[in-house]
Amino acid sequence: MPNKPHIFISLLLLLGSFSLFAANSQQVTLSLQPDKQGDIINKNIYGQFMEHLGRGIYEGIWVGEQSNIPNQDGFRLDVLKALKELQVPLLRWPGGCFADEYHWRDGIGPRAERPKTVNSNWGGVIEDNAFGTHEFFALAELLDAETYVNGNLGTGTPQEMAEWLHYMTSDAPTTLVAERRKNGRDKPWKVDYFAIGNESWGCGGTMRPEYYADLYKHYATFLKSPADNQPIMIASGGTDSQTQWTQTLLEQIPEYWTMRMQAISHHYYTLPTGDWQVKGSATGFGEEQWFSTLKNTLKIEDYIQANLAIMDKLDPQKKVGFYVDEWGTWYDVDEGTNPGFLYQQNTLRDAIVVGLNLHIFHRYAQRIQMTNIAQMINVLQAMILTDGEKMLLTPSYYAFQMHIPFQNAHAIPFNVDHTPLYKLNDQSIPALSASAAIGEDGHTYLSLVNSQAKGEINVVVNNVKQVVGKVLASNKLDAHNTFAQPDAITPQPFSAKVKNGRASIVLPASALVVVDLGKL
């Protein structure tokens, strides 16, 4: 990919092969190799996603200046503070399915004059367009986050998309730029990423990849921005096990257009049951659905490998990235809530899913320079839940927060003597997952997941200076925070003794641990 010097990333992870070993063995020896420092783990792997869906934006982050909820220019202060502390690197907006019915002009100008429309994708509620282009970029600037905008391919036109990009990025003396200035923004915004459509195989138009490839070229022809403010251009790719979208896009968009197709998106959601009709509950589950959720989330690695094999054949110079710009858990909605709002509780299980996925993304980060968990607030696997003026942080929030040192860190390889298995009935998955990197502060960080519902794992680590960090764990598989008990599960201090550069890190069952090993 051009114009991104730190984009190509690689990470060696211990779970490259899952060899069988004695069932009663629960000790692993891990040897770090800090002298073999790798490439940078792009911070945007930790990207967030906000869609006009349920209470994801309205109440979630935007309450308006007149709200009784304390706010800064309409953004609620408690959520704003939590997002700043999370160090959100990237925001994706306005969708999702909503993007392909979103007409950007509805969301500019005086709010009282903005049109009211129907959000036909998510609950059929009225969208008053109070949160639009100016509000999105204001939030991104408050969070010091990069921006990812999804263009409307489904119901829009090339002219509408081109004019939006010009409105956002240009400083030329045009009528559109004058309109932006009249609406309160003098200088252009930085659009870091721009996608032509979303889920074009489904809610974005129910298209064949061949048809979409032609539309992509059509629209991209007219998407022009200043030389110093050109976004990374993203094509709408496949989902789950699909590879035909990656194949078709790389085959049908010639080399000239490859310079305007710098990444292909891919979506994968983790369902406990694997059945979209009855997905499974967010809480009150037993070990079988704990296990099936983790087993299903690990399938993303197979899907990544299949697509990357095609990319390596058709794009050996690795000009095109592979972005998992929607991922996370998807359960049956909480009882009593609007089914179109996709509100679900968030438990320890979700934090484990975060750890497992981040480790995988690190491993394939040469192509995967950006991912976006779905979604940031009050929707699906959210970082934050709100109820009116009340707010809480979820286990997924804490999992992301614990991994902040991995943003823009240098990956390092390590060796292990074997990989323990987590077995349930006649199935098994790796019991241990890990990732290691040297942070921008020069310290080495190690992230570990014990997937097992029962049983500790003793990870003996060589070549370390210290073991100090956090653990997120509970003896309840569905441990979660509520508005009555917002701190029921939070990260706790974690440490291990070091002797002669060697430490024994005892991982509790169902735990995520991130530790600082010092400057090695």
Characterization of this structure:
Helices cover 23% and strands 23% of the residues. It is α/β, with parallel strands linked by helices and 520 residues long. It has a single domain, classed as Alpha-Beta Barrel (TIM Barrel), CATH 3.20.20.80. The strands form 7 sheets. It has an 8-stranded parallel barrel with strand order 2-5-8-9-10-11-12-13, surrounded by 5 helices. A 6-stranded antiparallel sheet has the order 16-20-21-27-23-24, covered by helices on one side. β12, α10 and β13 form a beta-alpha-beta unit. α3 packs across α5, α8 packs parallel to α10 and α10 packs parallel to α11. The radius of gyration is 23 Å and the shape is globular. The two termini are 32 Å apart. The N terminus is likely disordered.
Write the layout of secondary structure elements.
Layout: E1 27-32, E2 47-49, E3 71-72, E4 75-76, H1 77-86, E5 90-93, E6 117-119, E7 125-127, H2 133-143, E8 146-151, H3 158-169, H4 175-182, E9 193-196, H5 209-222, E10 232-235, H6 244-252, H7 255-258, E11 263-270, H8 287-297, H9 299-314, E12 321-329, H10 348-363, E13 371-373, E14 384-387, E15 390-393, H11 395-402, E16 410-411, E17 414-416, E18 421-424, E19 427-430, E20 432-438, E21 444-450, E22 457-462, E23 468-473, E24 492-495, E25 498-499, E26 502-507, E27 511-516
Parallel strand pairs: 1-22, 2-5, 2-13, 5-8, 8-9, 9-10, 10-11, 11-12, 12-13
Antiparallel strand pairs: 1-17, 3-4, 6-7, 14-15, 16-20, 18-19, 20-21, 21-27, 22-26, 23-24, 23-27, 25-26
Helix pairs in contact: 3-4, 3-5, 5-6, 6-9, 8-10, 10-11
